[in-house]
Amino acid sequence: MDSAIRARLEAAGYTYLGQENKGRYCHGMVTLCTDLPAMRFLREEYLLRIFFNAKVRKGHAFTYSELKPMTGAKSAESASRLYAQLHWLAGRQILLRGYSLHCPVCDLDVWYDLASVGEFTTCQGCRSAIQLPLEAAFSFRLNQLFIEGMKQGAATVLLTALRLYESSPAAFVWQSGVRAKKHGQETEIDLVALCGERLVVAECKDNFEDDTALHDQLRRTTDVARDIDATEFIFASLREGELEAIQALRGIEALTRWSRALLLRGESSV
Ligand SMILES: [Zn+2]
After folding, report:
1. I need a surface site. Which of 119, 190, 196, 235 has the fewest CB within 10 A?
2. What number is the average pLDDT over the span 132-136?
3. Diameter of the chain by CA atoms?
4. How many A from CA of 125 to the centre of ligand 1?
């Protein structure tokens, strides 16, 4: 926990309860990629389609030829751009390279990380030695940290943090998944960031329904934002369609200079 952010919470009478999983995943994902600016690849619509694919999120492995149609990249230019991006993701170990191998003894099909494969590989089922076929295509599986993080909405949190970082690169600290408690009420805040002198609190949703649960969550988070004298409150989403996002924010108050909806989809790409 950044001490300056924690101090702002405690000065307003909150007890800091730690970081929820989503927050830890977000920071771990950034560590894997080196730093927050490296997360710009999340702005690429092609890659978001891969990260949001249900089978990718279940840990299924895909060859490059299988990944390509998932992204909708059709022109030669977009295909070569996608190729470079996937190459980069493999280099960062965000996409792990390996082989899907079939065991002729127990019939199990399992994906094996490149590092665990040799001419003979021990079957994860019956433990027999499987010899590699003469021809096999690499397939790629999403890093488990990314699987868990993406399932919990890390893409929106990281894109929001990135946007705020770009507004104040010289003095930026952030914390995601902050759990704070006051008067017996616990609140989880997706993102708290200090951008120079500005203190920003954000609620981040990949997608949302404009319903009571969302309004309750927004009410709790904006209460904390006011208590800690935040400069700004942001409701950020990857959902397409501006109207819906603004309607959700209107559920708690009129749009003011203090609060705004941030629609991250369709931002300029890497
Ligand atoms: Zn086997």
Report:
1. 119
2. 95
3. 66
4. 5
Helix axes 144-151, 154-167, angle to 10 degrees: 90
Report residue 246: phi and psi, to 5°. -70, -35
**Domain 3-26+149-263 classified CATH 3.40.1350.10?**
yes
The confidence score (pLDDT) of residue 259 equals 78
Cβ contacts of 187 within 8 Å, gap of 6 or more: 179, 180, 181, 220, 221, 223, 224
Confidence bin at 187 (pLDDT 50/70/90): very high
| Distance of CA 121 from the midpoint of ligand 1 (Å) | 10
Ligand 1 centre to CA of 140 (Å) is 21
